TrEMBL record:
NCBIfam families: infC. Belongs to the IF-3 family. Gene3D superfamilies: Translation initiation factor 3 (IF-3), C-terminal domain, Translation initiation factor 3 (IF-3), N-terminal domain. It is found in: Cytoplasm. The keyword Cytoplasm applies. This is Translation initiation factor IF-3. Residues 8-77 form the Translation initiation factor 3 N-terminal domain. Keywords: Cytoplasm, Initiation factor, Protein biosynthesis. PROSITE patterns: IF3. The gene is infC. IF-3 binds to the 30S ribosomal subunit and shifts the equilibrium between 70S ribosomes and their 50S and 30S subunits in favor of the free subunits, thus enhancing the availability of 30S subunits on which protein synthesis initiation begins.
Length: 173
């Protein structure tokens, strides 16, 4: 439930609530005014934690501290997320052997770092009539990295470019 939807103190619209105190023990079903009075006596807030329940479940807690800890948990979760980037490696249909090895080394490095790789071949002028050369280069690259990467998208011509996407192999161990 998002912070904007969380009902606190007077914002709660219910006659009766199932009350949980600050230690987590259930106090049973209480009238809303009595629950709010108990929260104010404890110098804490009354927070609706399950508004869809019948009657709604409310907890006596320090709402500011609760929101602070929740934001810390969300920040920690974002920090631990791995963002997958798409790295692009460009070829031409008339690429030399040494250049293929250099680009292959880069593709392997990107896949080992956990990034996806977009291989693209740009056809210029009359080179577009030799699409088979481009497809051969892309298939060769996929064959060379098949132990560390999978073909996510087969070679496909889009305008004057042939594009293939490789993704790192998923380890199921």
């Amino acid at each position: 439930m998002s912070k904007e939807q969380q009902q606190v103190n007077e914002a709660i619209r219910a006659r009766e609530v199932r009350l949980i105190d600050a230690q987590g023990t259930q106090l049973g079903i209480k009238p809303f005014r009595e629950a709010l009075r108990m929260a104010q006596e404890a110098d804490l807030d009354l927070v609706n934690v399950a508004p869809q329940a019948k009657p709604p479940v409310c907890r006596i807690m320090d709402y500011g501290k609760y929101r602070y800890e929740q934001s810390k948990r969300e920040k920690e979760a974002r920090k631990n997320q791995k963002t997958v980037q798409i790295k692009e490696v460009r070829f031409s249909p008339s690429i030399e052997e040494h250049d293929v090895h250099t680009k292959l080394r880069n593709v392997k490095k990107f896949l080992n770092n956990g990034d996806k790789v977009k291989l693209s071949i740009r056809f210029r002028g009359r080179e577009i009539t030799h699409q088979d050369l481009g497809r051969k280069i892309l298939n060769r690259m996929a064959q060379e990295v098949k132990d560390i990467g999978d073909v996510e998208r087969q070679p496909k011509l889009e305008g004057r470019q042939m594009i293939m996407i490789l993704s790192p192999k998923t380890t199921n161990s």
